[in-house]
Amino acid sequence: TITDMGLTEMSLVGKEFDPHKAEVVDTVEDEGKENMIKEVIKRGYEVRGRVVRVAQVKVTRGSESSRANA
């Protein structure tokens, strides 16, 4: 099977955004740390650690109030 060849789904939710593994399709406001992956829209895959399809994700951005205070 394809998993025997080393294909694995990338687990990205809660991790910092990495442009080598994911493509941002939307952003969501969050009081926490910016550029964290909040949701995966389209799954990404690796074969033996090499990305074969990047994921499409939503990432966090600071809230309006936190940006106003910066």
Query: Which regions have little confidence, pLDDT < 50, spanning 5+ residues?
Result: none
**What is the number of E strands?**
6
Q: Which radius of gyration do the C-alpha atoms yield?
A: 14 Å
Order of helices and strands: EEEEEEH
Shape: elongated
* Beta-strand content estimate: over 45%
| Major β-sheet strand ordering | 1-4-5
Task: Report the mean per-residue pLDDT as an integer.
Answer: 90
Structural class: mainly beta
User: In oligomeric terms, what are we looking at?
Assistant: single chain
Count of helical stretches: 1
First-last Cα distance = 51 Å
Major sheet: size, sense and barrel closure? 3 strands, antiparallel
Helix content: under 10%
What would you say this structure looks like, in words?
It is built from 1 helix and 6 strands; from the N terminus they run ββββββα. It is mostly beta strands. Strands 1-4-5 form a 3-stranded antiparallel β-sheet, with no helix packed on it. Strand 4 and strand 5 (50-53) form a beta hairpin. The chain starts with 6 loop residues before the first strand and ends with a helix.
Quick summary:
With 70 residues, this protein is mainly beta. It is built from one helix and six strands; from the N terminus they run ββββββα. Helix content is 7%, strand content 47%.
Topology of this protein?
Blueprint (H helix, E strand, L loop, with lengths): L6 E3 L12 E9 L6 E6 L2 E3 L2 E4 L1 E8 L1 H5 L2
Parallel strand pairs: 2-6
Antiparallel strand pairs: 1-4, 3-6, 4-5
